[in-house]
Amino acid sequence: MLNEEGGIDPLEFRFHAMTDRVGTTGTTWLGLTLMCAQCHTHKYDPIPHREYYQVMACMNNADEPVMDVPNAEIKRRRAAIQKQIQAIIDDLPNRFPPEGNHRWRAAKLTSAVSTGGATAEILADDSVRFSGKNPDTDTYTLQFDGDATEVSALRLDVLTDPELPSTGPGRTPHGNFVLSEFTATVARRNALDSKQGVKFVRAEADFAQDGFPAAHAIDGNSKTG
What we know:
The chain is built from 4 helices and 6 strands, in the order H-H-H-H-E-E-E-E-E-E. The longest helix has 21 residues, at 10-30. It has helices at 10-30, 49-60, 72-90, 92-95; strands at 108-114, 118-122, 128-132, 140-145, 185-186, 196-197.
């Protein structure tokens, strides 16, 4: 046996295999308890410590052949199971995402504005970095452009910024923030002035502080979050 856990030394397990082979050989073929001499020579034992490791050295220099023992039935079953596995893999695009989940797609960010005077910088990955003024409360308005015709959910990812001293993702020294309200409107490209509000019915969050559940971000009350 060989433990393949990370950080192990295969030679350690080879040593344990060698001691097992010496003991088995002595008991089975020689009728001797060679294992008694593994640690030291015994006063009345005919096998001294030195000869124990001579036997081990002999076995340690032997080859360890790996031989395939083909079995037609196992080969047939393996081929059938592999065929089933491949069929399931090939059908994954038709089965994913499962019912109730969402296939997330990033939309193109076209503009970002802060009513509190913060500087909005749109980055290459379509994320936006806010810097500069940092009032107690602020409203960020983001505009996206996308081709999706059916949208069932919106996701807001808040990120830390390694270039800023804050621990993030909030802009306070301790990195915390409160999302008071999350709203959205939609409009066609050729009629941007004809915006239609979106009514959110459920909210989830990866993390929510006690007393600040995700549902407070869509309750229409800017005093909760």
